[in-house]
Amino acid sequence: GDSVTQMEGPVTLSEEAFLTINCTYTATGYPSLFWYVQYPGEGLQLLLKATKADDKGSNKGFEATYRKETTSFHLEKGSVQVSDSAVYFCALSDQPYAGNMLTFGGGTRLMVKP
Amino acid sequence: GAGVSQSPRYKVAKRGQDVALRCDPISGHVSLFWYQQALGQGPEFLTYFQNEAQLDKSGLPSDRFFAERPEGSVSTLKIQRTQQEDSAVYLCASSTAGDGYTFGSGTRLTVV
Question: What is the per-residue pLDDT across A65-97, written as a single tens digit (0 to 9) for each?
Fold first, then answer.
């Protein structure tokens, strides 16, 4: 079955540091890949997505590139802010549209210190 | 409404008690999903509705869990005879073709 593995946290960085959160996946088909963010006390929010190999998703300074050859979708940001402190979830779906479930990784907590 | 609304936000249940968790999806969203998120873990799929039809309930952990969406809008997740291992955040999400998911803020269930 499908699965997602992401690096364990917490990841603690100083403000303006470079961020990488690793994510690898196993899927039988050609999934769409997602990063979701969960701020304290809030629901999951879609951060970015990529639907095919070599696509790059980007949003709010975050980027991730769909690498089929390494089955990876690592999240990066060049300069983190305190407001980026949250839990980040990598996820996949075998179909990008309504009607198919998401398979999530275990989440990575990011803590950014001023 | 503007987003997915879940109620109650917090629920404390005594072991053995029945609970009902409500989800109000975004108006017009055909698909509705329930996920269970244990502490420190990623969400795990429970069940999926397309309109009023429950098309997939493979993730429901036991027959104590039951979900319904009788009119294709509001959905209720019911857990009978709650156990401590049911303690988790229960997330609802809705979507429609071409759009991504919108998640609610979840209901945090604590079984004592």
Answer: 999 999 999 999 999 999 999 999 999 988 655
Q: Does B97 touch chain A (CB under 8 A)?
A: yes
CA distance B108 to B112: 13
* Of the partner residues A43, A44, A107, the one whose CB lies closest to the CB of residue B41: A107
DSSP structure string for B54-109: EEE-TT--STTEEEE-TTSS-EEEEESS--GGG-EEEEEEEE-TTS--EE---EEE
pLDDT tens figures, B26-58: 998 999 999 999 998 999 999 999 999 999 999
CA angle A19, A65, A36 (to 5 degrees): 65
Q: Residue A109 has what DSSP assignment?
A: E
As a whole number of angstroms, the distance between CA B11 and CA B107 comes to 7
CA–CA gap between residue B90 and residue A109 (Å, rounded): 19
Q: Residue holding tokens 């300074």?
A: A61
Nearest to A49 by CA among A68, A71, A64, A28: A64
The distance of A47 to chain B (nearest Cα, Å) reads: 11
Query: Is residue A59 exposed (0-12), middle (13-18) or buried (19+ Cβ within 10 Å)?
Result: middle
**Cβ A50 vs Cβ A74: under 8 Å:** no
Interchain proximity A43–B103, CB inside 8 Å: yes
